[in-house]
Amino acid sequence: MNRYIALLIPTLLAGCGTLPQPFLGRPGTEGALLSIPPPPVLIIPPPHDAMLGDNASRIYAHDLADALVARDVPSLAQPASKFDWLLVAQAHILGNQIIPSFSIVGPTGKMYGHVTGTPVAAGAWADGDPKLLRAAATAAAPELARQLGVINANVQQSNPLSLENRPPRVMLDHVTGAPGDGDHALILDLRRSLDQLGVILVRRKHEADFVINGIVRVSPAKHASTAINTDVVELDWMVRNQSGAFIGKVSQLHELEPQQMSPYWGDVAAAAAEQAALGIKQVIVNATPKHVALSSNADATHPGSARSVIPPAQ
């Protein structure tokens, strides 16, 4: 149920210095796919104060859950447990109409929001008409989803442990598939480059907000009219959150001669890591709430945003 938004990683350039050229200016052109880690589920118990019978109450709760899921709000129609976020449905009669209403209740019982629904015919409501119940749930979903987004933002901003209020922490996991000493050299050079960019690095996964690993693929280059022996080298740097959900990817592609990678990558690894670090940092900046900035001058602007719809238990 995650919400993904395709973003284009900006072209990142760096000075050539004394490093070899293969990876300079190639931090990865694939767009980052960003998501907020899966939020807690909103529980919708069958309403007891909605002027519906037992069966109609269960149907209505499922209709509300379906309508919210369609708007990227993870929701389940079931009895509530301790520490759940709840949507409590109610209704009152006004003349020959029923006015549905909804309260958004946090784990401590605090009411965070209230929505009044569209009036419906009292007779059809009392009869538990399935089409009417589904239509009423669908009509209420847009405003409920909007309020939940606002509530989530407010709760996150008040939580000192939230990424809203502290810099992200990054763990470098491993690199696989590189010939020679590439697996080892690339991860060491990437650690150095990210550190120089001000990225906070940790060594334990439970301390990290983002986990990075690299995948190297090498295949013979195909040249019809040259005797030069080169390989096509593709480096994919995967960015995931602590739970393993995909956040983004930085890709690098070039041709190298085998002797540039075996037995030692040397300056080629340093150049690749330097450029990969720029792209990786951009993915992390894009995936981090905008109240927090990493300590460098890299551009943190992106053309889209993602939101979590249910805040964590407080």
Alpha-beta classification: alpha/beta
Order of helices and strands: EEEHEEEEEHHEHEEEEH
Low-confidence stretches are 1-39, 295-314
| Biggest sheet character | 6 strands, mixed
* Helicity range: 25-40%
Description:
The chain is an alpha/beta fold and 314 residues long. Helix content is 27%, strand content 26%. The protein has helices at residues 54-69, 122-126, 130-158, 182-196, 267-287; strands at residues 5-7, 32-34, 42-43, 75-76, 85-94, 97-105, 111-116, 120-121, 169-176, 200-202, 210-220, 231-241, 246-256. Strands 3, 4, 5, 6, 7 and 8 form a 6-stranded mixed sheet that branches. A 5-stranded mixed sheet has the order 10-9-11-12-13, covered by helices on one side. Strands 1-2 form a two-stranded antiparallel ribbon. The longest helix is centred in the middle third of the chain and has 29 residues, at 130-158. Mean pLDDT is 79; it is low at 1-39 and 295-314.
Main features:
6-stranded mixed sheet; disordered N terminus; disordered C terminus; alpha/beta; 5 helices; 314 residues
Topology, pairings included?
Layout: E1 5-7, E2 32-34, E3 42-43, H1 54-69, E4 75-76, E5 85-94, E6 97-105, E7 111-116, E8 120-121, H2 122-126, H3 130-158, E9 169-176, H4 182-196, E10 200-202, E11 210-220, E12 231-241, E13 246-256, H5 267-287
Parallel strand pairs: 3-4, 3-5, 9-10, 9-11
Antiparallel strand pairs: 1-2, 5-6, 6-7, 6-8, 11-12, 12-13
Helix pairs in contact: 1-3, 4-5
